[in-house]
Amino acid sequence: MKIYLCLLMTFLFGINIQAQEKEKDTLFFKFDRSYIKESESESDLIFSLKDTDNTEMFYFKRAEVVNGLKPKRILCLKETIRQPNFYNKSNVPKLNNNQLLKYFSSKITYLVKEKSGKKEFIRIEPVLAIAD
What is the CA angle 92-28-78, rounded to 5? Predict the structure, then answer.
């Protein structure tokens, strides 16, 4: 009887853990060359923002390139970043880097780039670097 009780508890506990895992939201942003600067680093491709400060640099690094996705909606990255919880025009620095890092770390994020008439989906990850 104890074995059945232990198995039942293990089964129920396992279901409870799986129910608590939350799937990340997926966001798609149009690759806007007027706001996003693409550059090569030593080991990867990075995407920095026009609003980035020189002392604390928030940027995205390329994780992978995927094709054939079908997003329901493609958003504007500039509009998202310039929301009041991430951006304050009167402050120096303008960006709240910690809030941006927290927000984008909890999402699966893609930049949608037109290449030869086809859409390329670049999965990106947020990075916060502090300059020396």
Answer: 25
